[in-house]
Structure formats: structure tokens, C-alpha cells
Amino acid sequence: MIGLLHDFTPVLLSGFLVNLEVAFGAVVIGLAAGLPMALLRSKLPWSRRFVWPCVRLLQAAPVYVVMFFVLSALPRDLSLFGWPVAGLVAVVLAQATYMTSYVAENFYRALQHLDRNERGRALLFLPNMLRGFVVVVMSSGFGAAIGVSEAVAVTMRQAERLHAVGDRVLLFVVVIAFFVAVFGTANALIRALVRRLSTAANAVSCSA
Amino acid sequence: MCRYSRFAAPSAWTQTRRSIIRAALRLLIGLMFLAGCLQARAEDRSAAAARQILDDARAEAARDCSRPAGVLVRVLCNRQLRVGLRTYYPGFSVRDASGGFAGYEVDVARHIADFLGVRLVPVAVDPKTRIPLVASQDIDLVIATMGHTVQRDDQVTFIRPHYYQSQTVIIGPTDRQITGWDDLTAQTVCLPVGASSSCSSARHHIRILTFDRPEQLLDALAFHQCAFIVHDNTFFAGLLANPQWSSHFNVKFGFAPQPWGMAVARRGAAAFASLLTDLSIAYHADGVFLDLARAHALDQVFLAQEQQRWSSPGCITASGTADASCLISPADDSDAADTSRFAGRATWLEGVASQWFGLQLNLSLLQHQSTVDLLLGGITYSLALVSGTLLATTGFALAFARLMGSGPLVVRRAVGAVTAIGQTSPLPLLLFFGYVVAGGLTQYTGLVALAVAILVIGFYNGSNAARAINEAYQAAQQRSFLDAVSAAGIQLVAFLINATKGSPAAGMIGVPEFLNVMTDLTAYSRDRAAVYVVLLVFYTGLVLAVIFLLSVAETRLAITVERRA
Lengths: 208, 565
Hints:
The complex is a heterodimer. Helices cover 81% and strands 2% of the residues of chain A. Chain A has helices at 2-43, 48-60, 63-73, 86-115, 119-122, 125-139, 151-160, 165-207, and strands at residues 79-80, 83-84. In chain A, strand 1 and strand 2 form a beta hairpin. Chain B has 20 helices and 13 strands. Helices cover 57% and strands 11% of the residues of chain B. In chain B, helix 9 crosses helix 11 (301-311) and helix 16 packs antiparallel against helix 18. At the A-B interface, helix 2, helix 3, helix 7 and helix 8 of A face helix 6, helix 14, helix 15, helix 18 and helix 20 of B.
């Protein structure tokens, strides 16, 4: 089992890199689409009538179903530098629907804080973006269902090569421990950043 | 005394007899020669007809490649033939680690590409993608272990004569006595997504679990995640010949023999289809198919019969085309008694959509009672899943929060560690973990899958919500647990909505919910985008309904807390 884990670690890390790529792509698209929506909603009150339902619909659409929908709409032989990317694009776009609504909502709140001169609170937008990034990295594992070779998919493939239930369970425990370590650290860092920003915001409001 | 001697001069009768024998021999040799000529002419006629179509297409390609008229001209213009092939179907098509394909179907594709004088470009397909890909012309041809059925005829053009034949078999442990459908009633069987046997199983009231790839069926059978698996006999041929494997599993019974056909798109591929038909006749007649099957140690009974059929002059018309009476009819999965009570209304609606709005609506799923039953079953599973995950999320959230807030230190620490796992592990990973553990503990069925999904999704979201409630409890200086729940109401509601949104992912571990059922039933549909629009509307509507109900519940909880205060 130790030998197997030794061989599997690079595969898991390369799979995890795909999760990070998906999240990065989704955040970029989410920012590009979400920021203008929030600006419209904040600066042009009449636009709320269509922006708010849009944000609500994007929030309500299940990412897993959106992923299949996008995949069915994309050309199957979609490739980038000769690499087939239809599955990857489907996951990124599906996650981007969630990120767009998340950015639109959080940036709108940040703008409201700015309007009230609460600069410190508005800055909480940044850790919220990090939190959104972590959420997308975690849910990009849905890509396993459409053949994207991210961390969950490579774990499943590795599990299929093991011939004892105990070995499979052990493999999953190791991979879960890996995620707990990575995201536990990420969440701790985010919490520390939030605390720092909140303290700074409270200090500013007290001095004001 | 006259006595017969071999040296004696032959009598008149003997001479006559010899003459008759010689004449008969000459006649026989003449007939054999003629038959040979006719056979050669039959093969030649088909090959010549194929070559004529190819020459016409080449002339067309030479004239203008900017807008190729049809699939064949496009293939010649691009100098490549994109063929959809399976990635793991031993003997027929297997993709190796370096990405190369090998097998009977791969060799057939290579022969066709060589005939056309173009490069073969294999494209990996599975039962879900093979028809949509060829129908949308993302690939030019599919040779992917696909049974030719009447139902699939609406989607693509199958090439006849067929290049192979299989029948569907049910495989299970050797110690289980199963002799027919009745023994499987209310049991759960596993089959690949898009298999035409889904409807047969539904008609016999058998629960189904579907898997993306057939090799997953073998894994699931070995790990007790499936009691029985259903697939083509050809898929199991190698395994059944393995004494170790066949000592554990055997064929219970077989049904629905199906001829396998290559297929091309229904639009723009008429010339290509004609060429492939002529080529298939020639390949049967001159033994190309038979030789290729022999080279891969496949069963050759069907191909030998076909060679005999297409070698005889009676099956080829003067123009080299196939006599319709010699072609094998596609299998018909339908059942005359399998008409749903919505069939009339569905047909009426299709007519209205077509006449009034010009829309080509396909409501064939509503025409048959078996598919209607599967759809209703899928919706029931989805609703049970959503209700279950909402209850489980609430249960885990309240239980964990309570224990974290007021339990003994050891329990608080342990629950804190467990919720940390729930908060930091990806949901799909937890689902697969649950799937592996459940398969090791019990016989995996649709209901077990549902229970696993409910527990995992509930645990995942409940862990997050529990943390929020606990933080509210600590912040409120432990006033009252109900106050803390009310204070963390927004987060609790957010994670309940998240649980609802995550519920379709239960399909990843085989829960036969609506998305899974629709994916399965429409695996051969060209209108996949339309199917997913329906699914998107269904699930988004479900989430919006849950949001509405939760907002009502949240308001009531706030009022209750306010009254108590």
C-alpha cells in the first residue's frame, strides 16, 4: 500500500492541479460577469428588475446539471493545442455560473459598504473571494462524472485497480486526509484574514 | 467363359458409363467455374459500385472543397476519416495506454479508411456519446458495438449488411439460481448507460443501476455492488473462457439478439451510406470480416453465415446492391402492449408543436408505459432524495451543533474533528467513499444508493451548518440553543439550499434519480441539449421551491423565537 501511495501521490497532485485550474477559470469568468452585474444593480436602480432575478436563477441552478447541459451544447471535439477540452470547459462554465452569482452578490454588498464609507467591511470582499475559490475547487470534483481527470476522478480510477475493499477504503481515507490538510489550512488562513480585516474595520469605525 | 477382367476391352455399356461420368464431371467443373465467376462478379459488382461512388465523390472534392457536399466529400477533402470507437471492449476495440486502438472494429475502420485513401482518426466514444456524436457529424462514422434497433433507426442511418451480431445476457454469481425474468422481479441489475435493455428490464419490473463504462460493471459485480449485470455476450466471451472467473460467475439467460451496425448521420451521408453498404457486401463475400474476426479470436458463426449469404448470387441485384430480402431486420425493443395512457396526447402535442410553431418536438418517452414508469420512478427518487437530504442536513446540523456546544470535552473534540472532515472534503469524494463502504457492507441497490447519498450530502452540508450554529451559540454566550439556531438561520438555510442543489450529484453513485434516468433513456438521442434544458428547468424549479419553503420556515422560526423572548 505504501508503494502504491508513493506512485499515486504525483497522480493525485496533477489531478488536484486540474481542480485549481477549474477554480481559477471559474473565478476569472465569475469576476468578469459578476462585477458588471453588481455595478449595474448598485448604480442603476431600474436594472435591479432583471439583474436580481438573473442572480437568483444563477444561484438556484444546480452546478452538476448545468455541467451536463453545457457539455451537451459544446462541440465534442473542442480542443486546445490538440488537447480535448470539452469536459474541462463544461466544468469551468458550470462552476462559473455559481461564481458569477457569488461575485455579483458579494460585490454588491461591498459597494453598499463603500457607499456607507465602511471601507474595512467592503474589503471583506477579498476573503469572500478566497472562500468562493475554495468552494469551487471542492465542487470541481463533479467533473469526474464527465471524464475530467481531476483529483476525485484519478482517485476513483486508482481505486478500481485495487482488489480489496480495505485497500480502497484506505486509499479514500488518505485522499480525504489530503483534502482536510489543504482546505483546513486554507480555511484557517481565510478566517485569520477576515479577523484582521474586521478588527481594522472596527478600529476605523470606533475612531470615526 | 467370359469373365470380367480389368484388362479386358471395355464393353459398350462401360464406355457409355464413362462418357456420362466425364460429361457430368465437365458439367460440375463448369458449374463450379460459373458459380465462382458469379461469386467473383457479385463481389466485383459490390466493390465496383463502391468504387464508382468513391470516384464521383473524388470528382466532387476536386471541384470544390470549400463547402463539401456531404460527409463522404468532406472526408475526402479533409483526408481523414473520424471513426467513433469504444475504448474498452476486449476483442472489438481497446485503447492502450499510449492512446492506440486495437481490435476487430478498429481493423474494419482501417480497411474502410484504406479503401477511401484517407487517414483513420479514432475518436473515443461510449454508449452515451456514440449516437449524438455521429448524428451531429462530430465524427463521420461510428463502429462501436452498437446494436441495430428500430428505435435507433430514427437517430442515425445504420449500414446493412451488419458486421457482427450479439445477444444480451444476464450474468450473476454461480450460486444464484435464475432461469428467467420472473426470478429477477424487484431485484436490482446493473447495466451500461444507454443500453437498449433498460426498457426490457423496466417492463419486467426490475430495478436498474447504470454505469458509464461496461468495465465498471465487472468491478461492481466483483465488489458486490451489483448482484447481476447485463450486457452483450460478446463483452463477456473472454471472461467466461477464464476458468477462475467463470467459477464465480455465469450466464443466467440471454435475450434480444441484435445485429451490430456501423452508422452514419441521417443527413448529408446518403452517398457515404451507399458506399459502406456496397463495401460491407464485398467484405462479407470475400471473407474480410471473417478473417478479421478470426484474427481477434472472436466467435465466427454469424460471419460465416453472412459470408455464405453474400457469396451467393441471389442476394445481389444486377446493379450490385443488396436484395432487401437478404438483409437482417433491426431488432425491435418495443412491445405492442407497452403503450402509455399519455401516448395519444403526446402524439397530439407533437403535431400541434409542428403545425403551429414549426417545432420538431420528440415526446417518444411518453409513448411507452415502461419509459413513463422509469421517468416517474426517477422523479420519485429525486423528490425522496431532496426531502431526505433536507432532513439529514438539518439532523446532522442540529446534532453536531448541540454536541459541539454542550457535550463533554472528548465528544466536543471528536465532533469538531468530524465536522472538519465534512467541511473540507469534496462532496463527490465523500459520495464515492460512501459507495465503496456501502458496497463492502451490503448488497448495493438503488435504495442503498439513495440512503448513502442522503447520509453523505446531509453530513457534508450539516457539518458546515453545525459550525455556523455553534459559532452563533458561542457568540450569544450560550443563551439558548434555539436562539443560536435562529441566529444562524441564514447559514442553515444556505446549506439546506446547497443540499438541494447537490442532490443530482447522487447520480454519480448510481441513484436512479431523474437526471440519471433521463441521461439513460436519451443516451441515443440527437436532441441532448433539449433534454438537458428540461432537466435544468426541473432542478432549478425544485431548488426555487425549496428556497420558498425554507424562507417561510425561517420566518416562522424567527417569529417563534421573538415570541419566546
